[in-house]
Amino acid sequence: MQQISVSVNFPKWGTKHLIAALILFAATTTAARAQCINFIANGSMETYTNCPNFSNGGTINYATNWKTIGGLAGTYGQLLVYRPGECISNKPVSSWAASTALTGGSDGTNWLGGHNTENWQNTLTQPLPPGNYTFYLDAGNVINSPYVNTNSTLLFYGVKSTDADFSHIPAQLIGSVVVDNVISATNQTWVTRSFNITTTETYDRIEILNAPVVPGNAGAYTYIDNFRLTYTVSGGPDTTICVGATTEMAGAGSGVWSEKPGNPTSTTITDPSSGTTTISGFSTPGVYYFIWTSNGCTDEVAVTVTGPSAPVIAVTDPSCAVPTGSITVESPVSGLTYTLSPGGTSNTTGVFAGLAPATGPYTVKASDGTCNSAASNAQSIGAFECCESDAGTITIIP
Ligand SMILES: [Ca+2]
C-alpha cells in the first residue's frame, strides 16, 4: 500500500490521539505498511551539541548532521530548543518574542527556523540511490515584523558527492513545498506536508533553500521539524480470499517477497523475486502476512483467508445390524453445509449413512455459503462381514 503523498495537509495528531492509536494498533493486528529508512539524518534535530545563544546566527550547525552556509558567524538557519532545565534557546528571543512560547517542535524539543534566502543542508544517513521517494516535514510560519508573510516556499536540491556544499544546482532541484500555515504561541499546530520526488542521480546531501521573494517583500519566518525522506515502497493492497485459493500479489518495483514468521501455515511463493507472483497453499483460515522488501524498505501485505476449516471425518463400517457404512463429520459446526465426495450429497448434519460396503475413499468439504473448505481426511467403507451363523438347530428326538 502506498504512503500518503502530495500536498495533503493534515494537522499533527495530539499525544492523546497517538497513544489511543497505538493502543488500537496493539489490539488489532494489522500489516506494518511501508517501513523505511529515513535518509535524513537527525531529521528531528533532537541531537545537538550546544545550547544556542541568541547572539549567534547559524546555530543549526549545532544540530548533528545539519549545517548552514553562513556558519555561526552568519545570520542563517537557527536551531531552536525548548528543554527547561537543560536549554531554552533565547535566539530568536530578541527578535521573535512569540516563538519562545512554543513548548517544543512538532516532535521533541528541538526544531529549525529560518527566513527567505536562508538555507540548510543535511548530510544523509547514507547515499540516496536513484528512485522514487516521499519527503515529509512538519512546518509553520511565525509572524513577526518584518517577516509578516503567511507563506513561504521551500526548495529541495540533491547534492552529489562531487558537488560543493550549498551549490543548489538548478538541474538538481528535486522538489518544493509551500508552507502557508501560521504557528504561534497560541496555535502550536504544526502541519505535515509531503511530496514525491524521483531522482536519477545518487545524492549524499540534501540542501533546503527558503526561496527568495521579490524585492521589498520581507517574506516569512519558517519553522520546520521532523524531516523524513523515505523510499516509496508498495507491496500492493491487502486482499481477502477463500481458503484453498491462490492470490496474485501486486508489489511495485524490484524486490523480494517473503513470508512473515507466524503465519497460520506455510505457503508457496511461486517466484519470490517477482512483485506480481502468485502465492498458494492457504489451507487454513486466518490472516497471513507477506513482506515486500525493496530498496531498503519493507511493506507488509495482509492476505485474509476466510472459510471453514477442513472437517475431520470418521467411518462406521457395515455390520450385521446395519449392512451399509457411514461417514460422519466430527464436531460439525452449525451453519455449515457438508458435501460428500464422491457422491455430491450435502447436508448440515455431517452424517452420510447408507454407503455401500467396500466403497470410497470418501472426503467431505464444508461450505459457509461463500467459501469451501479444503477436503477432509479420506475414509473408505469396509467390506460387509457378518460372522453370526444363519444355521438353524436340528434336535433329534430318539
Ligand atoms: Ca524535533
From the spread of the alpha carbons, the general shape counts as rod-shaped
Give the second-level CATH assignment, the architecture of the largest domain.
Sandwich
Class per helix and strand makeup: mainly beta
**DSSP E strands, number:** 25
- What is the fold-level CATH name, i.e. the topology of the largest domain? Jelly Rolls
From N to C, what is the helix and strand string?
A: EHEEEEEEEEEEEEEEEEEEEEEEEE
Give the biggest beta sheet. Answer: 7 strands, antiparallel
Name the helicity range. under 10%
Distance between the termini: 99 Å
Specify Rg, calculated over alpha carbons: 34 Å
User: Strand arrangement, largest sheet?
Assistant: 1-10-7-12-5-3-4
Question: Number of helical segments?
Answer: 1
> What's the CATH superfamily of the largest domain, by name?
Galactose-binding domain-like
Mean pLDDT metric: 86
Indicate the low-confidence ranges by residue numbers. 1-28
Proportion of beta-strand residues: 35-45%
Number of domains: 3
The hetero compounds bound to this protein are:
calcium ion
CATH C-level class of the largest domain is: Mainly Beta
